Amino acid sequence: MTAGVREEPRGADSPRPRPGTRLRLVGWLTAVAVVVGVGYRLWLLVNAAPPTNSDEATMGLAALHIARGEGFPVWFYGQQYMGTLEAYLAAPVFALAGGPSLLGLRLPTLALYLLFLLLSWRLTLRLTGNRWFGLLVVALLALGSDRIVKNQLIAGGGYPEMNAAGVALAVLAVDLAAGRPGWRLARWAAWGFLAGLMLWVDPLVLPYVVATGAVLVGFRHRELRGAAGALLGATAVLGAAPLLLHSLLNGRNPLHAVLAASGANATAGWADRLHGGLLLGPSLGMGFCAPGRCDTWQLWWALALPLLLALGAATAWRALRRPPTEAGPASPADLASPAGPASLVDPADPGDPVLVAPRVAAAIRLALVLAAVVTLGAYTVSSSAGLTPVESSRYLSCLLISLPALLWPVWTVARRGPRPSATGRRGLGRTLARPVALALLAATLGTAAQATWRSAQTAPATRAAEARHAELVSTLRQLGVRQVRAGYWTCNRLTFASAEQVVCAVVDDALRPGFDRYPAYRREVDRAAAPAWVAPAGSPLANVLDERQRANPGSLDLVTIDGWRIYLPQ
Question: Which residues contact 441 (CB under 8 A, 6 or more apart)?
C-alpha cells in the first residue's frame, strides 16, 4: 500500500465486471480488425492496386472464355500446371457484369481473403481458446505489405486460394481429430475435396495437406477404415479430377512442369540460395518489407523465425507427449478417447467451445510448424531462391497459415511470464523472458504496419499507371487498330483490357516472335495485313522501333500518348 493512500476494501455489493464484458470487447475489436483488413484491400482494388500484369490478364482471359462458353481450360494458358480455379470463380462475375474488368477479376480473391481471415480466427480459438490472442492474429493478417497483398489479391494463379484452403483443412482436421459430433461425414468429405482441389490448383500447399492429414490418421485411423475413409478418398479424387483426367488423356506428368518452374532446370549457388531462402524470403514473404526490397533492419524477422519454429515445435511436442491426466480433469469416457480430455469451453461463454482437446491442439500446432519448416526448406533448396529471391518469395505465402502456432508460445510468455524453476527461483533468463516476448510481439506488429504503410503509398502511382493504360486501349479503339505486336508484359494485359477487341502477338526486343500463352491470338495477328506495334515509352522495344523508323522514313506512323508509343505501318 502506498503511503498516504488508503485503499478501501471491496464490499460485497461493489460493482464487478461481468464475465461477458471483456468477451464483448474483444469480439468488437476483432470485428473492427476484420473490417479494416477487408476495407484496406477494397480501397486498393478501387485504386487498381496492386498493379496488374499480363499473367493476371491471362487468368482474366480464361475467365472471359469460360463466361462466354468458348473454352474450359484446366491449366493456366501456356503451361501444364497451376489450375484455373480463379478463372472459374471470376467467370460468373463477368457474366453478371456484362464483361471483363480488373475489379471483377479480383472480387473473388477479396472474398477468399475474407474467408482466410475468418478461418484463421476460428483456428486460433480452436487451438488456444484465447480470444485476445485471436485478435492479435487477425490484426496481423489484416495488415498487408506489398508482397502480401499481391499474393492475396492478384488473380495470377493459386496464391489467393491456397491460404484459405490450408486454414480450412486445419480447422476441419481439428474438429475431426477431436471427435466433434455432428456432420462427421460432411467434414470428411470437405477435407478430402479441398485436399484434392489444392493438388490441382497449386502444390505449394501440399505440406499443410500432408501435415494435417497425418494428424487425422494419428487420431482417427479407426474411423478412416470405414465410410469416412472411403468418402474422403472419393472426394479427394473429385477435387483433383481436372488434373487426373488431363494427365490420363494427354499422358503428361504435371510434376515435371512444376519442378521446371521452381528452377530445377537452372543453377544457383548455395550461398545465393541460403541468402534468398533464409534471409530475404521469410521477411518478404511474410509481410515485413517495403515494396520490392527489404531494408536491413527489416530482416530481423528472418533471425527470429528459426527460433519461433523451434520454440513452437518444442512446446507443441511437450504438450502432445504429456499424459492426458496432466491436461486437466477428465471423465473415464474422455480418457478413453484417442483425442484425450474432452473439449474445454470458454468460461465467459460456455455455449461456445473454443478450445479442443489439448493433445489435438498440440498435434495441429506441431503439424503447422512442421509444414512451415518443409515449405521454407523446399524453397531454400530450389534455385528460385537464389535466382529471383524478391519475386519468388511469393512461394512462402503459405507460412501465414502457421502464424498462430508460431506466436502462441511467445504470447503465453508475454501474458503470464515464464514459470519458476523447480526451486521456485527465477534466473536472469526467466526474468527477461516476458519483456523479450512483449518486445517481439510489438516489433512484429510494428514492422508489419510500417510495411503496410509503405505499400499503401504506392496506390496513387498505380492508379495513374492504370489510367495511362486505359488511355492506350481507348486510343487503339479510336484508331481502329485490331491487331498489334508487343512485348510479353504488354500483350495479354492489352487484350484483356480491351475484352479481345484488340488482340496481340508477343515479340521480343529484337522483334522476333515471343512466347504466346494463347496461340490463337498470334494466328489472328499473322493473318492481318498490317498489324501495329505497341511499346512502353523508353523501353528497349520502343528504341528498336524508333531506330527502324529513322532507317526507313515513312514506314511507320508514330502516335504517342503518355507512357506509350504506337507504331502504325504504312
Answer: 136, 407, 410, 411, 414
Beta bridge partners of 556: 569
Residue at 501: amino acid letter: Q
Burial of 15 (0-12, 13-18, 19+ CB in 10 A): exposed
Compute how many other C-beta atoms are within 10 angstroms of the C-beta atom of residue 40.
Answer: 16
Inter-residue contact 62 to 44 (CB < 8 Å): no
Total residue count of the chain as it appears in this document:
570
Torsion of CA 353, 358, 361, 366, to 10 degrees: 170
Who's near 531: CB < 8 A, 6+ residues apart? 483, 484, 485, 505, 525, 569
Distance CA 88, CA 99 (A): 15
Say if CB 413 and CB 432 are below 8 A apart: no
Put the strands of the sheet holding 483-486 in their side by side order: 503-506, 483-486, 532-536, 564-569, 556-561
The DSSP code sequence of 506-543 is EB-TTS-B---SSHHHHHHHHHSSS-EEEEETTSHHHH
DSSP 264: T
| Entry pTM | 0.89
Q: What is the DSSP letter of 558?
A: E
Cα–Cα nearest to 286, from 135, 117, 141, 153: 141
Please say whether the beta carbons of 383 and 264 come within 8 A: yes
* Per-residue pLDDT tens digits of the chain, which is 570 residues long: 333 333 344 444 444 445 456 678 999 999 999 999 999 999 999 999 999 999 999 999 999 999 999 999 999 999 888 999 999 999 999 999 999 999 999 999 999 999 999 999 999 999 999 999 999 999 999 999 999 999 999 998 889 999 999 999 999 999 999 988 889 999 999 999 999 999 999 889 999 999 999 999 999 999 999 999 999 999 999 999 999 988 888 877 666 655 555 555 567 788 889 989 999 999 999 999 989 888 889 999 999 999 999 999 999 999 998 876 544 433 333 333 444 444 444 443 444 446 778 899 999 999 999 999 999 999 999 888 888 888 899 999 999 999 999 999 999 999 876 665 555 555 555 678 889 999 999 999 999 999 999 999 999 999 999 999 999 999 999 999 999 999 999 999 999 999 999 999 999 999 999 999 999 999 999 999 999 999 999 999 999 999 998 888 878 899 999 999 999 997
CB 567 within 8 A of CB 549: yes
Q: What sign does the CA torsion over 52, 58, 59, 62 have?
A: positive
Q: What angle do CA 160, 472, 51 make, to 5 degrees?
A: 25
Specify the DSSP element, H or E, that contains 560: strand 556-561
For residues 373 and 402, is the Cβ–Cβ distance under 8 A?
A: no
Q: Cα Rg for the chain, rounded, in angstroms?
A: 27
C-alpha 194/C-alpha 188 separation (Å) is 10
SS3 call for 47 = coil
Residue 97 CB coordination number (10 Å): 14
Are the C-beta atoms of residues 111 and 85 closer than 8 Å to each other? no
C-alpha dist (Å) from residue 400 to 68, 102, 380, 405: 36, 26, 17, 10
